Amino acid sequence: MPVSLSNPDGLAPVDLYRHVSVATGGRTVRVAGQVALDGEGRLVGAGDLAAQTEQCYLNVATALASVGATFDDVTRLRVYAVDLTPERMPLFAEGVARAAARLGVTPAAPLTGIGVQALADPAFLVEVEATAVLE
Fold it and tell me: According to CATH, what is the number of the domain 3-134?
């Protein structure tokens, strides 16, 4: 596996992700922001941040699998969420946990959460993009 993840001493403890990733592979994969659309283009989880987050992570996994990658190869996740507040973070974490359980993975790559006013469609509550490195 070309990716090593860690939480260095001296940084705030986190459970949802790791602060640092080191990649040693040679091929970089960038997955465009994934929204809560299923394979037929239908919205999943209207108004439900947890359900939409779960679908976004499932879509990222599908995109990764298309090039022979998994969440083990991910070096960075970037999440854009509408009206991101501390009160809504448990819903985001629930969606990640549900996706992880379905996929049998622990998506722990460094994560940046960015609160936004809106996404491309008013029905979208969250969008997730990923960078991975393959050998």
Answer: 3.30.1330.40
